[in-house]
Automatic annotation (TrEMBL), chain A:
Pfam families: CP_ATPgrasp_2
Domain Circularly permuted ATP-grasp type: 114-487
Name used for this protein in its record: Putative circularly permuted ATP-grasp superfamily protein
Domain of life the protein comes from: Bacteria
InterPro entries linked to this entry: ATP-dep_Glu-Cys_Ligase-2, CP_ATPgrasp_2, UCP005522
TrEMBL record, chain B:
Organism encoding this protein: Rivihabitans pingtungensis
Pfam families in UniProt: Alpha-E (PF04168)
InterPro entries referenced in this protein's UniProt entry, alphabetically: ATP-dep_Glu-Cys_Ligase-2, DUF403
Protein name according to UniProt: Putative alpha-E superfamily protein
Positions of the DUF403 domain: 1-300
UniProtKB/TrEMBL annotation, chain C:
One record GO biological process: proteolysis
Domain Transglutaminase-like, chain residue ranges per copy: 128-198
Annotated coiled-coil segments of the chain: none
Highest taxon, organism lineage: Bacteria
PANTHER family: BLR5614 PROTEIN-RELATED (PTHR33490), SLL1049 PROTEIN (PTHR33490:SF6)
Keywords carried by this UniProt record: Hydrolase, Protease
One of the Pfam families matching this protein, by short name: Transglut_core
Species per Swiss-Prot/TrEMBL record: Rivihabitans pingtungensis
Domain Bacterial transglutaminase-like N-terminal, residue spans: 3-79
GO molecular function: peptidase activity
Protein name: Transglutaminase-like putative cysteine protease
Length: 512, 303, 244
């Protein structure tokens, strides 16, 4: 018997911001689970938590075929497949780079037990995602134009206009299809009530899609028999959907698209190169581009070539050293001046991040009602805004139960996890809140669902979340599923990058 | 293709070729160890002189030149000219141009780097095996490149790097090891070592059916287009590759490459020897440096 | 008052560079209080012009060939209505100008000083801001130049929830005297941008010609550039020779 720790927590494997903080240092979610134990081979029921595979001791209907197949597999055979997967990932060089040691590439741990969702449940999620992105893009268009939602008093104007993510450079610009967040990675988690909640809308430069695609490739190679037996929705066409979406961001008929990376020391460099190659477009760095005569040019072996669409994987602040952070060597001097004349498209648009800011998150359901006249299909996590005196008073009495986050903070620095914090830490954090309440929000601690995963002693439940990728262009396009992120480590309170936040393949299965 | 990517591919293949050449030189050099008594230091130090690292070696290992110390220094150490550094730089350049490589090419060069790291942690008991491995990996990569990649500019810059580096290496080795007017056993083995270092011993026999003689070795490695590492063979390739690169640029490089290729194709050994082989090779290496600079200016400068 | 301006900037790099891109905010625009009668930029190559996020006239100058010097000459005539100290424009929501930048964020000491003037600023707007500027100027270690003084005042005003912006322009020092580059502040009050010059401790007068506005110096400065390949701070040898 292997003891699995009293508490465990997932750190997001990937975050929405590219170069500010290491993706793996961004604590996306927090959870608290009762003590649970792993049996060799069969995951035990896990009281108080929702398990993706088991309802009590019985496999859920959509996992029945998989569970049956798994029963026929010995522990040794399972471990052998896992080892094979690890070896293949290493050989393929599917890695992310550790921020503190750029010379070191680390492999993303991959778990071979799939996270399965029945198609009928996915259909509901997908409708909710479409609705959410439509509203978020409408919000972004509005706040950079007439600001109706602010005038209507739905959101206090200063919440938006003084937000550091609000880019004055976007004021009055008209974007094709009114799309700002062309690529979104929406983090969802299933709570113990069985319902999905949106944790974060990542609208800046969400990453992780390459792991979704590599995971699928791996699973097809390892388990062809399962793909033959089950009707699993494909994801491999993501790159072609992405390319269509990027092309639609430009008014030009046959636009030249490039992927702009901070370079090979960026944690997500593997993904940047992967996507450029899958789309058949150039992977450029800032030094490869320059601005002249109101166009952006890339330096090629045949001389300068005009660029129409930049899928940029660097943050707003680093895009143009003449408009934003003057110390940035990553961007392109003068880029913004060309962008503002509509002569190049940036995906995602600068200033999209204001809509995924934690201080704006509580208003997303209101945005859906305001712009679409619909009731939200996806749940928001209840959020207390500490700039409101009533919320502040309530939260101060409940600090040991709640998670308190800094509104503009990325990374886990400005964060209190009540159930895991000592009395002294809570007391200290209370002072920080009182000094600037408007900088904080609070949420209940979520109990994330679990999914069986391969550990040394066989299978054990591990916590998972789900990041589907939503593409917005002329249409909204979503491949079925997304990246399931899994906390590979049990027993530690916070699973950090070096201890391994991993990935699982996500299967949307028909007829289950 | 992106100028920076062209530079990455070009240098990736130069470093890979350099690693392979150095492995061959070190291997042959080990075979010459017994000659040490006859010609103290001279041949043993050749790999150090070739890589311009005599001073760095002396600082680390002292004056004692042993095969083991040479392997440690030029094989596994972090010295910039070592095989290890060459493979690391080849891999870094490949990584920076990853989107231009096929999956198989990337995996081949990445696996080489992983293998090199394993060799650093546990150096092989027999360095000859390591040398074989390095050659094999380089040849494997060339094979995959030849078989897997679309014949585009990426392919051309990779090939260009290979042949420029190879010409550079052959010219340097010849300059270093060629002893025209002495005779005797030591010179015989020196010439044999030179031929082996550029994999030309079989070619020599096939062409001349004769014992080794200095002028013939020079002729083979300079002017014979059928010896794979001769300057003539390298420039026959370079001359073919350059006009295939898309776009209007690179006139100066194309002109120089064509002139060099013609000079090698129609050159006569007696003229070269009359001019002095050392002079000739010195001038050739200067030309090669200028060609490299012209290629950079025309195609590879990103900023 | 009519001002004749001739402003020559020479940038010299320590070594030849292969490429440079400059962002120029060197063209004044007509507004309620100033009328541009004529204006010309003399540049080493064609620049593309446009409006930046703050509504300023901006030129982007790219030199994509080896060079070591850049000379920029701005000349023209601007008529200023000395009776008007305020300006209007509708570019951006004034609330945006509540944000602090790394250059404006006030220290604890300045914050405390700002609090002591909170009431005056709230009630009297510009006059409150002028007394605040005076207090800032009297502090030990106060900025001696218009860049630093403007940043200090902006930081305090924004901390007091008073939208305020940075102004870059020219100042004619005396009748018939020199024209120099100068910076000051505008605060949003009653639907207009009211000027405060923290150096003269007065509103902008007939000698103030506005070039550009922004959150801080970085947004509004006349020339901001970068070069390739080396991006270290370039050695700037700017010579301002201007005359009325």
């Amino acid at each position: 018997m292997v003891r699995v720790g009293a508490f465990s927590a997932i750190r997001s494997v990937l975050s929405g911001r590219a170069s500010m903080a290491h993706p793996l240092l961004n604590i996306g979610l927090m959870l608290v689970c009762p003590e649970c134990a792993a049996m060799p081979s069969l995951p035990p029921p896990n009281p108080g938590l929702y398990d993706e595979m088991f309802d009590g001791a019985t496999p859920r209907a959509h996992y029945a075929a998989y569970a049956q197949w798994l029963d026929g597999l010995s522990d040794e055979a399972l471990s052998a497949r896992q080892r094979e997967a690890d070896l293949l990932f290493r050989r393929h060089g599917v890695t992310f780079t550790l921020r503190d040691n750029p010379a070191l590439d680390r492999q993303i741990p991959f778990d071979i037990v799939p996270r399965i969702l029945p198609a009928h449940e996915w259909v509901q999620l997908e409708r909710g995602l479409r609705q959410r992105l439509a509203a978020l893009n409408a919000f972004l268009h509005d706040i950079y134009h007439d600001r109706d939602i602010l005038r209507a008093g739905v959101i206090p104007p200063e919440q938006v206009l003084t937000n550091p993510q609000y880019q004055v450079a976007m004021h009055g610009l008209d974007l094709p299809n009114r799309v700002y967040a062309h690529v979104a990675g929406v983090d969802l988690a299933r709570h113990s009530d069985g319902a999905f909640y949106v944790l974060e809308d990542n609208l800046c430069v969400p990453s992780g899609v390459s792991y979704m695609l590599e995971s699928r490739k791996m699973m097809r190679r390892l388990f062809p028999e399962l793909f033959a037996r089950l009707d699993i929705a494909p994801v491999e066409h993501y790159a072609s959907l992405l390319l269509s979406t990027l092309r639609e961001a430009s008014p030009v008929a046959q636009p030249t698209v490039v992927v702009l990376t901070p370079g090979r020391h960026n944690a997500a460099y593997f993904e940047h190169a992967f996507l450029a190659r899958q789309m058949g477009v150039e992977l450029v760095e800032g030094q490869d581009l320059f601005v002249q005569n109101d166009r952006v040019w890339m330096r090629t072996t045949a001389g300068p070539q005009a660029v129409d669409v930049i899928y940029r994987r660097i943050d707003d602040a680093f895009l143009d050293p003449l408009a934003f952070n003057p110390d940035s060597l990553l961007g392109v001097p003068g880029l913004l001046s060309v962008y503002r004349k509509g002569q190049v498209a940036l995906c995602n648009a600068p200033g999209a991040g204001v809509a995924d800011d934690k201080s704006i998150y509580p208003y997303v359901p209101d945005m859906i009602r305001f712009y679409l006249g619909q009731e939200p299909l996806l749940n928001n996590v209840q959020t207390w805004q500490l700039r409101k005196p009533d919320d502040l008073a309530y939260v101060l009495t409940r600090l040991p139960e709640l998670v308190v986050k800094e509104v503009h903070g990325s990374g886990g620095y400005g964060m209190l996890i009540g159930p895991l914090a000592s009395r002294a830490e809570i007391a200290e954090f209370r002072q920080r809140i009182l000094a600037a309440p408007a900088n904080y929000i609070a949420q209940p601690t979520l109990a994330l669902s679990t999914c069986p995963s391969v550990v040394e002693a066989g299978l054990a439940p591990r916590h998972v979340d789900l990041r589907p990728f939503v593409l917005s262009g002329g249409d909204i396009r979503i491949v079925a599923g997304g990246l399931s992120r899994v906390a590979m480590q049990a027993g530690s309170l916070v699973v950090n990058s070096a201890q391994g936040g991993g990935a699982k393949d996500t299967w949307i299965v028909e007829g289950a | 293709m992106l100028a920076r990517t062209a530079a990455n591919l070009y240098w990736m293949s130069r470093y890979l070729e350099r690693a392979e050449n150095l492995a061959r030189v070190l291997e042959v050099n080990q075979g010459l160890a017994w000659l040490k008594a006859a010609r103290p230091g001279e041949d043993m130090a050749a790999p150090l002189r070739l890589t311009d690292s005599e001073a760095a070696f002396a600082a680390q290992h002292g004056a004692e030149l042993t095969p083991a110390a040479l392997w440690a220094f030029l094989g596994f150490s972090a010295h910039p000219a070592s095989i290890r550094s060459c493979l690391a730089r080849a891999r870094d350049n490949a990584d920076a141009a990853r989107d231009a490589l096929t999956g198989e090419m990337w995996q081949a060069i990445h696996a080489t780097w992983l293998g090199m790291q394993a060799a650093i942690d546990a150096p092989p008991a027999d360095p000859a095996n390591f040398a074989d491995w390095v050659k094999e990996r380089s040849q494997l990569f060339r094979g995959i490149t030849y078989g897997a990649i679309h014949r585009n500019d990426a392919y051309r810059f990779i090939r260009l790097g290979t042949f420029i580096e190879r010409a550079d290496n052959t010219a340097r080795l010849l300059k270093l090891r060629y002893r025209g007017h002495r005779a005797g056993m030591a010179d015989h083995y020196g010439l044999m070592a030179l031929l082996e270092s550029v994999s030309a011993q079989d070619a020599y026999l096939a062409v001349y059916h004769d014992t080794v003689s200095a002028p013939k070795v020079a002729e083979l490695l300079l002017l014979n287009p059928d010896a794979p590492r001769s300057l003539a063979a390298c420039f026959a390739e370079i001359r073919q590759i350059l006009p295939q690169i898309g776009g209007p640029r690179g006139r100066a490089a194309k002109k120089r490459a064509t002139e060099l290729a013609a000079a090698l194709e129609y050159g006569e050994l007696q003229d070269i020897l009359a001019h002095g082989l050392q002079n000739y090779l010195g001038e050739f290496l200067d030309q090669l440096t200028q060609l490299n600079d012209e290629l950079h200016a025309a195609y590879m400068e990103a900023a | 008052m009519k001002l004749h301006i001739s402003h020559r900037s020479v940038y010299h790099y320590p070594e030849r560079v292969r490429h440079s891109t400059q962002c120029l905010r060197l063209t004044p625009q007509s507004s309620r209080r100033q009328r541009v009668l004529s204006w010309q930029l003399g540049l080493p190559a064609r620049a593309s012009s446009g409006r930046d996020p703050y509504g300023n006239c901006q030129h982007v100058l790219t030199l994509d060939y080896p060079h070591q010097d850049i000379t920029v000459l701005a000349t023209g005539v601007v008529e200023v209505d000395e009776a008007l100290a305020d300006d209007v424009d509708d570019e951006l929501a004034p609330l945006v100008f509540l944000r602090q930048t790394t250059r404006t964020a006030p220290s604890a000491a300045r914050l405390a000083l700002a609090q002591r003037h909170a009431e005056a600023v709230r009630q009297h707007g510009r006059h409150g801001a002028l007394s605040l500027a005076q207090a800032l100027a009297e502090q030990p270690g106060a900025a001696k130049d218009s860049v630093g003084a403007s940043h200090a005042l902006l930081g305090c005003l924004r901390a007091l929830a008073q939208p305020a912006r940075y102004v870059s322009g020219y100042l004619s020092l005396a009748d018939g005297g020199e024209v120099a580059h100068h910076n000051w502040v505008e605060l949003w009050r009653d639907g207009v941008w009211a000027s405060v010059d923290p150096m003269s401790l007065a509103p902008a007068g007939g000698g103030h010609v506005k070039l550009a506005v922004g959150m801080d110096e970085l947004d509004a400065c006349p020339i901001r550039g970068l070069r390739r390949p080396s991006m270290e701070d370039m050695l700037r040898q700017a010579q301002h020779s201007a005359q009325q």
